[in-house]
Specification:
- With about 210 residues, the chain is mainly beta.
- It has 2 helices and 10 strands; from the N terminus they run ββαβαβββββββ.
- The chain has helices spanning about 30, 60-65; strands at about 10, 20-25, 40-50, 70-75, 80-90, 100-110, 120-125, 135-145, 185-190, 195-200.
- The chain has a 4-stranded antiparallel sheet with strand order 1-8-3-6, with no helix packed on it. The protein has a 4-stranded antiparallel sheet with strand order 2-7-4-5, with no helix packed on it.
- The chain is globular, with a radius of gyration of 19 Å.
Length: about 210
Amino acid sequence: MPDGTSTMRVTNRRLQDRGPEIDLTPMYPELCLVPEQDYLFVARLKLDMGDGTMNNTETSCLANNTHCPELEMKFRHVDSYERGYRKARLQQHEAPKYGEYFYFTQTITFSETEITPDNAYFTMLIHGVNTGVNITIDSFDLFLPSQSSYHNPNALCKELVFNGNAEGNGFNPYPMLETEYHERLKVIRDEEDGNMFWRLENRRNYHSSIR
């Protein structure tokens, strides 16, 4: 489990579109990624000013829904120009305060255009926060949903509830969903026994539930 003891930090950011970036090209994503397949993205991040002067105060994302962290896929076709598609954006109700670690997670898909073998390179980038703010990344994971996320096709009438223990997909709540946009569905790990469970926060209606 990520614990902040070994991290990567991007400092001295003078543009909003600068941040930790991973080059996927040597991994041949065109050979292992499937177009329109659900993939789970989970990163553990921290935003701060380096000297700690803003710690425990609200980030711009939390305060007014601006300069929120984003995940972008960048690629370039051999006969064209570089393009970038935003794959995820941290929502205001999920945003942290400065100086605290948080999980940035989303279910994402890739189009055929993004992962065609005709592309010269592929990168993924986390950026979008205010200039001058450091971005520390403790972990970055992109993976398929676990087998427990899907029904057994040979027992559809027997397994009416599946993935019922929240253990299958790390800190991504897939395949569970919130009822309303403003709600926050989180995967929580109990510090004492390591048990993982879902928690739905910011409920405003009696019918709000995990679905």
